[in-house]
Automatic annotation (TrEMBL):
Any one GO BP annotation for this protein: DNA repair
Keyword match Repeat: no
Keyword list, A-Z: Hydrolase
Alphabetized Pfam families for the sequence: HAD_2 (PF13419)
GO molecular function: phosphoglycolate phosphatase activity
InterPro entries hit by this protein: HAD-like_hydrolase_sf, HAD-like_sf, HAD-SF_hydro_IA, HAD_2, HAD_sf, PGP-like_dom2, PhnX-like
Record's protein name: Phosphonatase-like hydrolase
GO cellular component: cytosol
Signal peptide positions (record): none
């Protein structure tokens, strides 16, 4: 079995089932601001990204250039709406997420969650699940912790630094969007895995050339054991 030291999981859509409420909310605030768009466009151009950048990219795709002020205003509305949406809904881990964490930790790997959320939003989501850093997973890295977000590899590099890992070939990256896979590729991860439980389907994930595409985190153990 190939020796891996670190597994980096995206959060919403990968380990946490929240019914794509992030992207539904993002679409809602864009429409309310007068920028009509559909959910598929939001998923294609916004999935996995830091959310201000996602909004700016969606506006650019719609032909709205020099949109930083508009994007910032929409982003503030998005943060408020998402807080309300999360407060009123039940969320749960995807089937296989908790067992995957336990298996990887039993194999001596550190388990990291990384996300395009800011830390306040990510922490609130984890509190709803009663997932604790140091118990259920080893580290949370958010978009606000680094200068450059996905597809740049900075969040993965920060996690490696925290655990003294110098060789990215020892790292697994698992996510539900092509930009998650691009992040892993740009970091030089030894294994990149797309999962179809969240934002993007298999065809969209394969545009980033992951090593594997799976339908459930329950399949992860077999891949790791096979090396």
């Amino acid at each position: 079995m190939q020796k891996y030291s670190l597994a980096v999981f995206d959060m919403a859509g990968t380990t946490i089932d929240e019914d794509n409420i992030v992207y539904k909310t993002l679409r809602k605030v864009l429409v309310e601001a007068g920028y009509d768009t559909d959910l598929q466009t939001v998923l294609v151009h916004g999935a996995g990204k830091e959310k201000y950048e996602a909004i700016a990219d969606i506006l650019t795709e719609k032909g709205i250039r020099d949109n930083s002020e508009i994007a910032r205003s929409v982003f503030e509305d998005f943060r408020k709406e998402l807080k309300l949406a999360y407060a009123g809904m039940e969320i749960s881990p995807f089937d296989g997420a908790v067992s995957a964490f336990s298996f990887l930790k039993s194999e001596g790997m550190k388990v990291v969650l990384n996300t395009g959320y800011d830390r306040k939003t990510a922490t609130g989501l984890l509190e709803k699940l009663n997932w604790r850093e140091g118990r259920d997973f080893d580290l949370l890295v958010t978009a606000g912790d680094v200068d450059k977000n996905r597809p740049y590899p900075d969040m993965i590099f920060l996690a490696m630094q925290k655990f003294g890992i110098k060789d990215a070939s020892e790292v697994l990256k698992i996510g539900d969007s092509a930009i998650d896979i691009e992040e892993g590729k740009n970091a030089g991860c030894g294994l990149t895995i797309g999962v179809t439980t969240g934002a993007q389907d298999e065809t969209q994930l394969r545009t980033a050339n992951p090593d594997f595409v799976i339908r459930s985190l329950k399949e992860l153990r077999e891949i790791v054991v096979a090396g």
